[in-house]
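hi! just following up on the protien thing from before. the input was this:
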Amino acid sequence: MGTHEISDFIDKNRIATQIGRDVGISERIFIVTGGAQGIGYGIASAFAAVGAKICLADLNEKGAKDAANVLSKEYMTDVIGIGVNVTEEESVRDMVFNTVRHFGGLDVMVSCAGILIAGTLPQLNKEEFEKVSAVNYTGFFLCAKYAAEVMQEQRTLDPARMYDIIEINSKSGLEGSVSNSAYAGSKFGGIGLTQSFALELAPYGIKVNAICPGNLLDGTLWSDPEKGLFKQYMDAGKIPGAKTIEDVRKFYEAKVPLKRGCRVEDVVRAVKYVIEQQYETGQAVPVTGGQVMLK
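and the predicted 3d structure came back as:
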């Protein structure tokens, strides 16, 4: 970062020209962590498609840069790829600093980087538990911390402007998950952070919300033919009577009132909602087809 403060790179003219009018998604600057693949890439792609400026950040730096190049060429908008380790404070600080230096600001932080290591209580070791917590819980804390610093500074230039910090959480943050305690615990904790950050940052016009997707049954985590959960569950005999991967899939689809898995576009719609609305903060928004309903 050198001797410069992050405020030195905030584009004051950009904010000045937007004062007093509704700033659409196409005019906003995003960071999406975990953006090289999966949900993160889907979110980055959806907002790049309407002209938003995106920092696509991922532990896989090459994957992030390659994905950014694809989106830049496809949608003719400014998308950059940056390597980040969300468990390391300096790495997250540099990600935010370099985004602001490149684009002149930050309007939306989408914390999507995540990891899942399943196992029963006897199977799961301390190293695995702490690794999941570091990425899913501490990573969100760091992303929110450094995004909020920029957003608070920008708020002084336009006291009516609203900003967003969004955690991509999980239905496992709304109810316990068998043999998945590290992941569920980190996601429950993420909702606690969401609510606490929302209370702290509301005076600065920063909305903080969590999106809680259900099972993405079409994603590689579930459908990979060799390592996917469908195959793992079938091989382990977890689903009584299941003889094929399709049997396992139908079992999980039957848990959902709307009879299908969550899709990336469902998550994108929820992200778009929490950005565009002006009167919700501290919420955990289920995107589960009714499988998990708020009480």
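The chain has two domains: 7-214+263-287, 216-261.
The first helix runs from residue 12 to 18.
cheers
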